[in-house]
Design brief:
Length: about 270
């Protein structure tokens, strides 16, 4: 493992999902060898949020987030309206570090922009009530997302796997949001992501993988693990003219600040 003052925090990985959950000890061991020693695991519906909280209760290095992702909006929410109460109760019992993964997704085959906005804003309201940051998912909906976020000026969080380009990112930075970079930044032809990675301020960058879902220049989609945060860190360091130790130190400090977790490794 490389020598740095602090380890990497993967701020977005789905350790509750296959194939990672079936080999969790090995996944965590491989991550630690790569210098990744803490993990934020977001839910995307109530079941996965509960599973993330159970993991966090069993592994000190894992922190949970809870929320309803737009891709998991069912007909019940569309017909009767989304209730945040089960998530509020879960937060009271389990103390997650964030509300997420929540957001807007206009790339889905069948979606209602109105329903997505209503569910997102209800969860932003919950985050405000609980004084928690949010983990935001967004595809093809960055302008509508910005309009929803600006209604909750007291809420901050991270735009995970940001793909909106360098011009639009300023709006989210001005609103206090952090920007998450993962496998995309390792791809030489990912122009928008890499241009954005060069301009985001040092105090707003986070590392993530979205494991196992987002791949990288060398890892196929569906096969990524938290250990692959190291490759993202190396790519960010090169793009920004920093050493690997410097990029690790600043992203770890940022994650610790946003999610209120210890800057010291749990090992």
């Amino acid at each position: 493992m490389f020598a740095v003052e602090m380890g990497i925090i993967d701020t977005h990985c789905h350790l509750t999902d296959l194939p990672l959950k079936n080999n969790l000890d090995e996944v965590i061991q491989r991550a630690e060898i790569a210098g990744v020693d803490r993990f934020v695991v977001p839910g995307y519906d109530l079941a996965s949020s509960r599973a993330a909280c159970r993991l966090a209760a069993s592994f000190p290095a894992i922190k949970a987030a809870i929320g309803l992702h737009p891709a998991w909006l069912g007909t019940a929410e569309a017909k009767t309206g989304f209730s945040p109460e089960p998530f509020r109760q879960l937060a009271r019992l389990r103390h997650p570090v964030a509300i997420g993964e929540i957001g807007l997704d206009y790339a889905l085959a069948d979606y209602s922009a109105a329903v997505q906005a209503d569910v997102l804003e209800t969860q932003l309201e919950l985050a405000a009530l609980l004084s928690l940051p949010v983990i935001i998912h967004c595809r093809r909906a960055f302008e509508p997302l910005y309009l929803s976020l600006r209604k909750f000026p007291g809420v901050i969080g991270v735009i995970h796997a940001y793909g909106g380009g360098p011009k639009l990112v300023e709006k989210f930075l001005d609103s206090g949001y952090y920007i998450g970079f993962g496998g995309g930044v390792t791809r030489p032809h990912a122009r928008k992501v890499r241009e954005t990675a060069r301009i985001v301020p040092d105090d707003r960058i986070l590392l993530e993988t979205d494991a196992p879902y987002i791949g990288s220049h060398t890892v196929l989609k569906g096969e990524s693990e938290p250990k692959d945060c190291l490759a993202a860190a190396q790519a960010l360091a090169e793009l920004r003219g920093l050493s690997l130790a410097e990029i690790v130190a600043l992203t770890t400090a940022n994650a610790a600040s946003l999610f209120k977790i210890s800057v010291t490794s749990s090992r």
